[in-house]
């Protein structure tokens, strides 16, 4: 064990301890590995670099308080929104390391207010630091810590393999910009469990680069379970950076509250990649804008509003045509929904396909607030709406109850092979039918 006090660290919250902490990590690794110990107290520090075979352990009562002196943050090569570019170093870094751990009942405080102000005033020369950002690492463990006030994304693992994130509490103000909770990016074999996430952007966002990312590396084999997520723009979000593909994701036993949107898939024409084999089971949502979204006309980011990207007419299918398929949702309760029960909008040339909804209960709020379910050009605010499907194929709804919508429970356009079995349109506000359809083929309704 290597105690940072033995390397000159001072726990007064004023003396800069960057050198002492990094020297302890370096020596620990060079001598074969072990634990670098942070005792109770507040330690002011700049960027920290984890090394192979080391565990940085924060005792209960220990705080790493990251300096807001911008001169302490060197500029490094990293991904920002899926693209390799120059960025300020993260608070906790690791490059091409293996067997690294960040553990303990202590706290990382990023003092994000300084960085949020720079961003809002457009004064930041480079993208803001992330809090924890291992890059091309193997066997990464992050456990038990409290992470708060991150300058931008809180945990962003990039091109890593075998990641465990367990029992983490993340607290960023609900109005803090781009302070996502956990963002695995082009990683494999990811386990996220027992976390509580309360942030200013997406709680968990799974990413795999954009069309401008040279390395097309999938984000795959992901398990998310036993997590609570509050506030934020989305509970679990896939994309919009997904050009390397996102595959094999299991989301189980989670609760979303006040997360704007619930399960949200987003991409756009010419981005390439696929999102496939996604399973969501045993999830409760409350006070969300829209529980289920799959949008292939996502409008934000570079070229998102170009006329050919937004065009609702079919374009040629190429290797750069993105696809969403094999999405499965089961055993879910969504209460006090505001805008709509679900919104699936595929490309005119690449339908969202092979999806199932089974044992789903959705109730609209008595005081529903209008909102835009999915960000695409021309979208308008709605409230109290049911499912809307456009450009979809082979979708099955079984034992789905929709309560308190104004209009049809299922509104389907330009779709084929849609089956509704044992579905209920309960307490409809306008006495509308269960289903309305336009330009559809082979719609089967076996509903109560």
Overall description:
With 448 residues, the protein is mainly beta. It has a domain at 202-448: Pectate Lyase C-like. The chain is 6% helix and 49% strand. The protein is built from 3 helices and 37 strands. It has a 24-stranded parallel beta sheet that branches. The protein has an 8-stranded parallel beta sheet with strand order 20-23-25-27-29-31-33-36, with no helix packed on it. Strands 5-10-13 form a 3-stranded parallel beta sheet. It is elongated, with a radius of gyration of 23 Å.
What are the salient characteristics of this protein?
24-stranded parallel beta sheet, elongated, mainly beta, 3 helices, 8-stranded parallel beta sheet, 448 residues, Pectate Lyase C-like
Please write the CATH class name of the domain at 202-448: Mainly Beta
Oligomer state equals single chain
Radius of gyration: 23 Å
* CATH H-level superfamily of the domain at 202-448: Single-stranded right-handed beta-helix, Pectin lyase-like
What global shape is seen?
elongated
Reported CATH architecture of the domain at 202-448 = 3 Solenoid
Distance between the termini: 66 Å
Q: How many beta-strand elements? A: 37
Estimate what percentage of residues fall within beta strands.
Answer: over 45%
Major beta-sheet overview: 24 strands, parallel
